[in-house]
Design a protein that fits this description.
With 67 residues, this protein is of the alpha+beta class. 18% of the residues lie in helices and 57% in strands. The chain has one helix at 17-28; strands at 4-13, 35-48, 51-64.
Length: 67
């Protein structure tokens, strides 16, 4: 039987939402094993004079616990 846990993380990128997601997953994978998926809970942008300067995602990352 497998047991999974979910952790919420936030990641940012100056390029895109997709890049923010990938950066968040890459960083999580450095300390968390067995990542199985992620649910993008929120997306935000930061702007400066009408231009997007940063993309932010808040996501729920699911990983399977070790036996």
């Amino acid at each position: 039987m497998s047991v999974a846990k979910v952790s919420e993380i936030s990641a940012t990128s100056s390029k895109s939402f997709e890049d923010a997601i990938q950066q968040g997953l890459d960083r999580a994978a450095k300390t968390v094993r067995h990542i199985r998926g992620a649910w993008i809970k929120e997306q935000h942008v930061r702007c400066d004079e009408g231009r997007i300067t940063e993309y932010q995602v808040n996501m729920m990352v699911t990983f399977v616990l070790d036996d």
